[in-house]
Write a structure and sequence with these properties.
The complex is a heterotetramer. Chain A is mainly α. Chain A has helices at 7-21, 28-55, 84-107, 114-133, 137-155, 162-193, 198-205, 213-229, 238-241, 247-256, 261-268, 270-274, 277-300, 304-324, 328-355, 373-387, 393-408, 410-435, 443-448, 454-469, 484-499, 507-534, 548-554, 559-606, 613-632; strands spanning 61-71, 74-82. In chain A, strand 1 and strand 2 (74-82) form a beta hairpin. Chain A is globular and about 115 Å long. By secondary structure, chain B is an all-alpha fold. Chain B has two domains: 1-76 and 108-124, Four Helix Bundle (Hemerythrin (Met), subunit A) (Up-down Bundle); 137-167. Chain B has seven helices and no strands. Chain B has helices at residues 2-22, 26-46, 50-74, 87-108, 126-135, 138-158, 163-166. The longest helix of chain B is centred in the middle third of the chain and has 25 residues, at 50-74. Chain C is built from three helices and no strands. The longest helix of chain C is centred in the C-terminal third of the chain and has 31 residues, at 62-92. The relative contact order of chain C is 0.12. Classes of the chains: A mainly alpha, B mainly alpha, C mainly alpha, D mainly alpha. Chains in contact: A-B, A-C, A-D, B-C. Chains B and C meet through helix 1, helix 2, helix 3, helix 4 and helix 5 of B and helix 1, helix 2 and helix 3 of C.
Chain lengths: 633, 167, 105, 486
């Protein structure tokens, strides 16, 4: 089965081409089925690969298609690498991808750009598979920017609305900033190791000493790329705006797959990262701070998708925190569980929006329990999973991260706990405001409230089951389980285990940590319950006065406005100044003035022709004298 | 003996040349110029270039000076009132002329002062001159004839009365 | 006449240089075109004198032959020059060269 | 033999076209360009990818007394550029066929003469012949811009002509100096010039005339002020020729003459050259952000791309050079594509002001997607032609200095900013009055766009056949440089 790995990306590519090129001459139904069929096909192949990997002894397998770029000693081929890490990512991408394709058949039903939407989704899955399957950094980068392009197309899908286009452009450009760091990192890898294939790079990296400046620089540059793509602190502003795209897009791209590319990249280059502890601490700090920062913003947001977007940013912060403290498996585990429950939450929100006829403001919802029972049930499971209540998946993955964080540095654990408290609070706030209490929407909306069709609810149910049970693939020894995921991913991370020393906690401290975490969470949920369920408080509307702090948080700490003022405005001003003064008055005038200079000089010499014969003879004599004089001395 | 003749003739020619330049009346300057030509002809004789001396007198004094006189008389230019250049200009002219003279003289200081020894004195005779003229210099000879022809045509054309321009 | 010439060559050069300089001064100082022509003739003769002196010194006749050509040119020059002068005089009643400055910027 | 066929066929065709009157001049010009392209394909299949030095060479004595012989031949790098020229010409002619110009026969003739000049430059193996064709190539484009140009065409074309001429005169002085450095029976032959081994002082000195001449042509930062006006004011076929192929003459000149002859000079002055190029890249990108006229915006963007190529060349390493070579081809194609898109916009709406357009994607979806693909290839998106060159160039510059590569890399971001901004205000959003009756691509336009997009993806995904051609001569060039630099 492994030899067929090239089929996995091929199916979505064919899907994209078929639908893309002939979209206007077949029915909506056909387009939807082709697209989802393609993803299903690649899901089955990746499932086969996964099973073969589980049983077979041979853990890594590369399949080379053809030679891509060769120039001097730099040569890179289009080649796919199958190993436990990439096969897990394959499963997540194609699995969640297929469910979302199924979901969007129903969700996008009455949209005129239906076929175009599915072609873009398939294009996205193709690039994401390329990113995950590549056996060298350049192919990963090709997938990296490809998903950036696909997200640009999908965010700006309803391109009539200029603010959606701005959001799409913003996403692309902020990603591009990160990608520049990523490219420079790749080039530095090539310069230091002479090749950019994972095998050669990690093989020769083992001999390098720890904290070597060049390796630290490489990892930092790659992390800049990860920050851009996975929306970490400085470069996260594009993700909340990316909610302008249709909800399945937000589910697939901005929750499950694309944003996790940065985490995958760090996991893939774990050898390099474990060779530079300084970068790891930076990653941990950025992760933790992002987790807390985004969670605080999430608390006061009133748009259902914005809340989920900020929660994604904060959950990604957790994954980077895991990577930072060396818990690579923990990071991947949380990535997997997060993919399930966040996709579930987004699709749930999608079905709510679908029912409410496009309304996204939770202050105008409420009491949807009666009208959308399946969505209510699945959304509840998702909310419990994300807040980390045992035995749901969120608990296991988040607990593992917090345990490793505590082992690395208790302060990180405190930040982690603060983040998860806020996560629990805003998730249940969202849940109660949408589903419990009385309906606050308009009569027209109330009349139209109906449960989503089966194509939308089946994926919800499947995802709910996954969100609930996914935790059991990584039950830690402490709780009597053998961490299946860790054993499965061992061959990928074994080198970094030799280099990186992570101290282990005694069982007692782990129990204590779990206990405190779960205890605090339950308190917070009860607090949220009575705040929004019992005396069902409604968040204030925009006009009435809010406390300064609340105002600050509600307006997302004005980060967008700050970036605009620091970067965008000065750049435009600079380009204006350059063009008006520097170019027209500066360089252009220099060139033109040389022209005028020549004309001016010729004007002065013109005056020599006085017309007086006497004057000419006089000049002749003078010049003869001068010539003779200079020749004779 | 020839030295004295040379110095005498040299003195005469320089004096007359100065008079040509600084005499008020153009007629006087023409006559002084004729005198300089005669002194130069004398020099030729001293240098055994008899044929040349004769030709010189005939061509220069005879033809060109007569032409000058003729033009002067034709345009009755012998009026005293000739506009003068500004003194400053004259002064500058004299200075530059002097400068020119000094540079010529300066160029001489390098060469040793060898006496002018006539290798074969009879080259000045007409026979030898004729031989050289028609052997080596045949082509320039022909071209100078064309030159003279064109000068004549030019002179005639230029000084024609513009009859047709008048109507 | 073929006695030993004891006049040193430099004197001839000096003489012709002085004549030439006087000719130049004449051309620069005077405003009357005729006088300028005459001074040019003077300069030409200075050169002729030197040519003859050197041809005698070198005993090679080509110097003297060259004087012929100079004379021919001088004659042609005077002829055409005076013709132009007459025409100018007929049009502008003057031969003062400062008046003739139409060919200017 | 093939090189002389490639070279002289456009000349003959061009001259013949002068005398053709009426409409069929368009078909004749197209068929001439296609024949030329066919010859170059034949040359491609006979091209031996292993040999480094010039193939299909032909050399006949031209000016025997001065030892100048008319020697032409194609090594890897020049053959790639010849392929670019012969590939782009038919497309340019096809795009020119769509709008009517007054006395078209002389326009098409001039375009073919331009091809003659360009192929001459790329195939010259003798410095003197190189210089001659360098000037010849300048003449047709001058007349094209002068006779069919825009508003103030006289002033702009005059400035362009004099500016480039001044540069090439500098180069001539340097060439003559080199001519006299060659052993006794002096020659302009490139191979002998390569083996001159001038002293460090000489090379330092000779670097500057060459650099200024090529910097004006490329253009590089301080010498770029002629570019925007000329590109905007020239008629569309003229701009396509200028930005698609002619801007490569400067880079090719640097690779063919400057690097092998004065490697120590380049090494000594390299930092200033690259810093200038990178400043130019950022500077022109910022200028492009400000532009309101789409054509001027693309002109500045093409200056930015060529600036980066220049920086890659002066970094003097294998990746930089092969990146520069493949990026020249890629930029030629994407620049032609962008200008063709603008031509279509201008043909239908009569305006090139970005804010007057809007919502074209609603009325012309195919055109919008095609424009997006071309636009993405110009901002170096992976799997499109622009990415290969851009990456190798950045790798080359990085090996020279990390900071410069970082600054150079900024152009990809700025490029994305102004390209997407212009794409958004022209194609997305709701349609304005101008673009309401905008019709989608017609058959002739598809005939140009489809091969263009296929080539963009072909070079992006499988650049091997093109890079293979240039590989041996780039390797040889690097060995020449290493030989004298070590």
């Amino acid at each position: 089965m492994k030899e067929l790995v090239w089929l996995v990306p091929l199916f979505p590519l064919i899907g994209f081409l078929i639908i893309g090129l002939f979209k206007n001459n077949f029915s909506k139904k056909l387009a939807g089925t082709i697209a989802s069929g393609a993803i299903l096909a690649s899901f089955t192949v990746s499932l086969g690969i996964f099973i073969e990997l589980l049983s077979g002894a041979e853990k890594t397998f590369t399949y080379t298609l053809f030679d891509w770029i060769t120039s001097g000693d730099f040569s890179v081929a289009i080649a796919f690498l199958v190993d436990p890490l990439s096969s897990i990512m394959l499963l997540i991408i194609t699995g969640v991808g297929f469910l979302i394709h199924l979901y969007s058949i129903g969700y996008m039903h009455d949209d005129e750009g239906y076929a175009k939407f599915f072609s873009y989704l398939n294009l996205f899955v193709f690039f994401m598979l390329l990113l995950v399957l590549g056996n060298n950094y350049l192919l990963m980068f090709a997938g990296w920017e490809g998903v950036g392009l696909a997200s640009y197309l999908l965010i700006g899908f309803w391109f009539k609305n200029q603010s959606y286009n701005d959001a799409a452009k913003k996403a692309f450009i902020v990603n591009r900033i990160g990608d520049l760091g990523f490219v420079l990192g790749i080039i530095l890898i090539f310069i230091t190791f002479g090749s950019i294939n994972y095998a050669d790079v990690f093989g020769s990296a083992m001999s390098h000493p720890s904290n070597e400046p060049v390796i630290v620089l490489i990892t930092l540059l790659l992390f800049v790329g990860a920050m851009g793509k996975s929306a970490q602190i400085p470069l996260y502003t594009w993700l909340p705006d990316a909610m302008a795209g249709p909800t399945p897009v937000s589910a697939l791209i901005h929750a499950a797959t694309m944003v996790t590319a940065g985490v995958y990249m760090i996991a893939r280059s774990n050898v390099l990262y474990s060779l530079s502890p300084t970068t790891l601490t930076i990653v941990a700090i950025v992760g933790a701070v992002t987790a807390v920062f985004a969670a605080t913003i999430g608390i006061l947001q009133n748009d259902i998708k914005k809340v989920l977007a900020y929660s994604t940013v904060s959950q990604l912060g957790y994954m980077f925190l895991a990577m930072g403290v060396g818990a690579f498996t923990g990071g991947i585990f949380h990535l997997a569980t997060h993919a399930f429950f966040k996709a579930l939450l987004f699709l749930g929100a999608g079905s709510v929006i679908h029912a409410m006829g496009g309304e996204q403001d939770i202050r105008k919802m409420g009491g949807l329990k009666k009208y959308l029972p399946i969505t209510y049930m699945t959304f509840l499971i998702g909310t419990i999973a994300i807040s980390g209540i045992p035995p749901f998946s969120g608990f296991f993955s988040k607990d593992e991260i917090l345990a490793h964080a505590f082992a690395a540095n208790p302060l990180l654990w405190i930040l982690g706990i603060a983040g998860s408290i806020m996560t629990a609070f805003y998730m249940f706030r969202l849940f109660y405001l949408t589903f419990s209490g009385t309906f606050r929407g308009t009569e027209h909306q109330k009349h139209h409230l109906h449960e989503s069709p089966s194509t939308m609810t089946i994926p919800l149910i499947v995802l709910a089951v996954l969100a609930a049970l996914a935790g059991f693939i990584g039950v830690p020894e402490v709780l009597g389980g053998s961490h299946l995921l860790e054993h499965f991913l061992d061959p990928v991370f074994e080198d970094s285990k030799l280099i990186l020393f992570t101290n282990h906690l005694s069982h007692s401290t782990e129990y204590m940590l779990m206990g405190t975490a779960v205890g605090i969470l339950i308190l917070v949920i009860l607090f949220a319950r009575n705040k929004y369920f019992t005396n069902n408080e409604i968040p204030k509307s925009d006009e009435d006065k809010k406390s300064v702090f609340a105002n600050l948080v509600y307006n997302k700490y004005y980060v967008d406005e700050i970036y605009d003022a620091i970067i965008v405005k000065p750049l435009d001003f600079l380009s204006g100044v350059f063009f008006k003064f520097f170019e027209l008055k500066g360089i252009d005038s220099i060139v033109n003035s040389t022209g005028k200079l020549v004309i001016g000089l010729s004007d002065t010499f013109r005056r020599l022709q006085t017309g007086h014969v006497g004057f000419y003879i006089f000049m002749m004599v003078i010049s003869i004298v001068a010539i003779l004089f200079f020749n004779l001395i | 003996m020839t030295q004295y003749a040379f110095y005498f003739l040299a003195f005469v020619s320089i004096l007359c040349a100065l008079m040509v330049v600084f005499s008020k009346n153009p007629i006087h300057s023409v006559l002084y110029l004729v005198l300089t030509f005669f002194s130069i002809a004398g020099q030729y004789l001293l240098l055994n270039a008899q044929f040349l001396a004769v030709v010189h007198i005939v061509v220069y004094s005879g033809a060109i000076m007569v032409l000058f006189l003729f033009v002067l008389m034709l345009l009755n230019l012998n009026t005293e009132a000739e506009p003068q250049k500004s003194t400053w200009l004259k002064f500058a002219a004299v200075i530059s002329g002097g400068l020119l003279l000094i540079t010529f003289v300066a160029s001489l200081k390098g060469s040793e002062n060898m006496a002018l020894v006539q290798k074969n004195p009879e080259i000045g005779l007409t026979a030898n001159l004729g031989k050289i003229l028609f052997n080596e210099f045949a082509l320039p000879f022909e071209i100078s004839s064309i030159l003279l022809l064109s000068a004549m045509v030019g002179a005639v054309m230029l000084s024609q009365k513009e009859k047709e321009a008048k109507q | 006449m073929n006695a030993l010439q004891s006049v040193p060559l430099n004197h001839y050069i000096l003489l012709s240089a002085m004549l030439f300089a006087i000719g130049v001064i004449g051309v620069l100082v005077r405003r009357n075109a005729i006088i300028i022509f005459m001074c040019i003739e003077l300069m030409l003769n200075a050169v002729n004198l030197l040519m003859v002196a050197f041809s005698a010194h070198h005993g090679d006749g080509s110097g003297q032959v060259f004087v012929f050509f100079i004379m021919a040119v001088a004659a042609a020059e005077v002829a055409v020059g005076l013709a132009i002068l007459i025409m100018i005089h007929r049009n502008s009643k003057t031969t003062d060269i400062d008046f003739l400055n139409k060919l200017k910027f | 033999m093939i090189t002389s066929a490639l070279l002289f066929f456009p000349l003959l065709a061009g001259i013949a076209l002068f005398f053709v009157k009426g409409e069929q001049v368009k078909k004749l010009a197209l068929s001439a360009a296609l024949i030329e392209f066919f010859i170059s394909l034949v040359a491609y299949f006979q091209f031996d990818k292993a040999i480094a030095n010039a193939q299909f060479a032909m050399s006949t004595p031209w000016v025997k007394s001065l030892g100048i012989n008319f020697s032409i031949g194609m090594d890897g790098i020049s053959f790639l550029l010849v392929l670019l020229t012969t590939f782009l010409l038919p497309l340019i002619i096809l795009s020119a066929n769509r709008n009517t110009y007054k006395n078209p026969s002389s326009l098409y003739a001039l375009m073919l003469l331009m091809q003659f000049g360009l192929i001459g430059v790329f195939t010259a193996q003798d410095a003197f012949v190189f210089y001659i064709f360098w000037e010849i190539a300048l003449l047709p484009i001058y007349f094209i811009a002068l006779l069919w140009g825009g508003a103030e065409k006289v002033r702009i074309t005059f400035k362009f002509f004099i500016y480039t001429l001044a540069g090439s005169l500098l180069m001539l002085t340097a060439l003559i100096y080199l001519y006299f450095q060659t052993p006794a029976p002096h020659t302009f032959d490139l191979q002998t010039l390569y083996t001159l081994h001038l002293s460090q002082g000489q090379q330092n000195w000779i670097f500057w005339p060459f650099f200024i001449a090529f910097a004006i042509k490329m253009p590089v930062f301080p010498f770029h002020s002629w570019l925007a006006d000329t590109y905007t004011d020239a008629p569309m076929p003229g701009t396509m020729l200028l930005s698609g192929i002619m801007s490569k003459m400067g880079v090719y000149g640097a690779i063919r003459l400057l690097l092998p002859i004065a490697p120590l000079g380049v090494q000594n002055w390299g930092t200033t050259a690259i810093v200038l190029a990178v400043i130019g890249v950022l500077y022109t990108s910022l200028l492009a952000m400000y532009q309101k006229d789409y054509k001027r915006l693309v002109a500045y963007s093409s200056a930015a791309h060529v600036g980066l190529i220049a920086a890659g060349v002066f970094a003097m390493n294998h990746q930089g050079l092969s990146g520069a070579v493949i990026q020249m081809v890629a930029h030629g194609i994407s620049a032609f594509g962008l200008f063709f898109v603008i031509d279509i916009l201008f043909l239908r709406t009569g305006t090139r002001q970005i804010n007057e357009l809007g919502g074209l994607r609603l009325v012309a979806p195919n055109f919008a997607t095609a424009a997006l693909i071309i636009l993405l290839s110009s901002i170096a998106l992976p799997l499109t032609s622009g990415f290969i060159g851009e990456f190798l160039l950045l790798a080359g510059i990085y090996q020279y200095s990390g900071m410069l590569a970082a600054f150079g890399g900024l152009t990809t971001i700025l490029g994305a900013v102004y390209m997407l901004r212009s794409y958004q205000s022209a194609f997305l959003g709701d349609h304005t009055t101008v673009s309401s009756n905008f019709s989608d691509l017609v058959k002739e336009e598809k005939l140009i766009i489809v091969p263009l997009i296929l080539v963009i993806f072909f070079i992006g995904i499988y650049p091997k056949p093109l890079m293979e051609i240039a590989e041996p001569s780039v390797k040889q060039l690097i060995s020449i440089i290493e030989l004298s630099v070590k």
